[in-house]
Amino acid sequence: MSKIKLKFLGGAATVTGSKTLVEIEGKKILIDCGLFQGLKELRLLNRMEFPIDPKTIDAIILTHAHLDHCGYIPALVKKGFKGPIHCTVPTIELSKIILSDSAKIQTEDAERANTHGYSSHEKAEPLYKLEDVELAMNHFVGHQFSEWVIVNDKIKFQFLNSGHILGSAMVDLKVGDKKFLFTGDIGRKEPMLLYPPKKVEETDYLIIESTYGDRVHEEGDVKTELLRVIKETESRGGILMIPSFAVERTQEIIYLLYQLRKERLLPDLKVYLDSPMGINATNVYDNYPNWQNLPKVHFEEMYNAVHFINDYEMSRAIVMDKKPKIVLAGSGMLEGGRILHYLNNHIENPQNTLLFVGFQAAGTRGRAIMHGEKEIKFFGEYKKVKCHIESITSMSAHGDRAEMIDWMKNFKSAPKKVFLNHGEPHQSDAFRVRIKSDLNWDCEIPQLNSEYEL
User: Fold this and answer.
1) Cis peptide leading into 413, omega within 30 of 0?
2) Angle, helices 89-116/130-137, rounded to nearest 10 degrees
3) How do residues 357-404 score in pLDDT, each as one tens digit?
4) Reading across the β-sheet that carries 140-143, which strands appear in turn?
5) pTM to 2 decimals?
6) Which residue(s) pair with 161 in the sheet?
7) 141 pairs with which residues across the strands?
8) Residue 218 burial by Cβ neighbours in a 10 Å radius (0-12, 13-18, 19+)
9) N or C end of the chain: which has fewer CB within 10 A?
10) CA distance 60 to 62
């Protein structure tokens, strides 16, 4: 059998733009096709010529629907990719929601930049539009967990639950007698809504994320922390703004609010989900109860007390209203979406609270505020950050260092090589050191566009 090549086209030394090219027996398979986000030098990579001709890629295997894993797909199809895009069944529905929202935001941002003249280009253009998303969706093929997909007589793969978001999966790829396992984003040991990550006992090559490879999530009762923030904000007569990722985090917050309300602990505040994408994603969650580790009764009750805001005019009215309330809106890292309108109007009021409930990548507004930035730019103007800033870091959908190593201990023998991707440099290196110390496994940290022959 000829050599197998791995080339890391994204998600290397960064947590965005995940793309790993596998070249096998004349076949080219791309594991994930994510959008670069955050730092300008990373975002510019989305506009660069793709490292290989998209027409030569035979298939994409998609681990899950987050933008940093699926967000470049419409652009790749525009550039000539014609093959199938394999993923789990829920991932198809969630990908369509997330990619459509991405196209819409890009189009609106380009139009706003052109109208107000703050683009550095002669004319700002979106990377792709809604019609490009529709064309890309024609390539998607859905699968169940543990269903073997036959590529040819030497190559097959299956999806295994990764416990990160609804439908998220590890890719167990077999090439002849060699085994590869791509974790994608691996979830917590005890996810709030989902089943825990599938335990795996053997592989020759492990490609594992390292988003939280440098830390252990804080111990604590997430529900109690959320209640504290709500009560403190209410006591000031303020608005609680929660920039929330539409998939998983939004549903988790709603579930926690439902629990607090059932226990008669939640103050009498209106709760708004002002996110068309969040609402659509919630409907997908409701369609797949068997993929989640919750009694069905919760699905029937937990969304009843949340006001779903789809209409733009209604959203505008709620944005302008200064009465105390709880608002969930995207995007989770403050890079777009309706949350920006709330911050534009309410970030300078010290009565209000901005609560982060997820990872904030380098170069995003969310990371800047988390690190103490006192002025943030919205819609071409700077606003002073005067509201209270809170964070519940233990709500992450990513396993921490201890959880990932605990998961790795299920292997009966060490892989021949472990590749650490999807992590910022200090995170990946800290994880490498800990894996060496605890497991004595051979680890490699790929750089962008680095290639390995196996």
Assistant:
1) no
2) 160
3) 988 888 899 999 999 999 999 888 999 999 999 999 778 889 999 999
4) 140-143, 85-88, 59-61, 27-31, 19-24, 5-10, 451-453
5) 0.90
6) 169
7) 86
8) middle
9) N
10) 6
Handedness of CA 197, 211, 193, 66 (dihedral sign): negative
Q: Would you list the DSSP string of 387-443?
A: SEEEE-GGG-SS--HHHHHHHHTT-SS--SEEEEESS-HHHHHHHHHHHHHHT---E
CA atoms within 13 A on the CB side of 356: 21
**Spatial contact of 55 and 80, defined as CB atoms under 8 Å apart:** yes
Cβ-in-10-Å burial (0-12, 13-18, 19+) of 109 comes to: middle
- The mean per-residue pLDDT over the stretch 163-175 comes to 97
How far is it, in rounded angstroms, from Cα 245 to Cα 288? 19
Token look-up 């998961």 returns 407
**Which H or E run includes 170?**
strand 169-175
- Spell out the domains of the chain, with CATH numbers in brackets: 5-215+397-453 (3.60.15.10), 222-395 (3.40.50.10890)
Residues near 439 by Cβ (< 8 Å), separated by ≥ 6? Answer: 405, 408, 409, 414
Phi-psi category of residue 144: left, alpha or beta, with phi > 0 → left and psi -120 to 50 → alpha:
beta
Instruction: Reply yes or no on whether the pLDDT at 121 is more than 70.
Output: no
Contact (CB, 8 A) for 1 and 451 = no
What would the mean pLDDT of 124-136 be, rounded to a whole number? 95
CB atoms < 10 A from the CB of 412, how many? 7
Q: Are 246 and 328 in contact (CB under 8 A)?
A: no
Question: What SS3 state is found at 316?
Answer: helix
Q: Which alpha helices (DSSP H) does 194-294 contain, by range?
A: 222-235, 249-262, 276-287
Other residues' Cβ atoms within 10 Å of the Cβ of residue 129 = 16
CA dist 411 and 358 (Å) reads 29
Q: How far apart are alpha carbons 254 and 250 in whole angstroms? A: 6
In one-letter notation, the amino acid at residue 129 is K
Question: pLDDT tens digits, residue range 180-193?
Answer: 999 999 999 999 99
pLDDT in tens, 74-117: 999 999 999 999 999 999 999 999 999 899 989 988 888 788 76
Which residue is it, tokens 């800033």? 389
Confidence at residue 1, expressed as pLDDT on a 0 to 100 scale? 61
- In this predicted model, what pLDDT tens digit does every residue of 404-453 receive, in sequence order? 999 999 999 999 999 999 999 999 999 999 999 999 999 999 999 999 99
C-alpha–C-alpha distance, residues 187 and 56, integer Å? 32
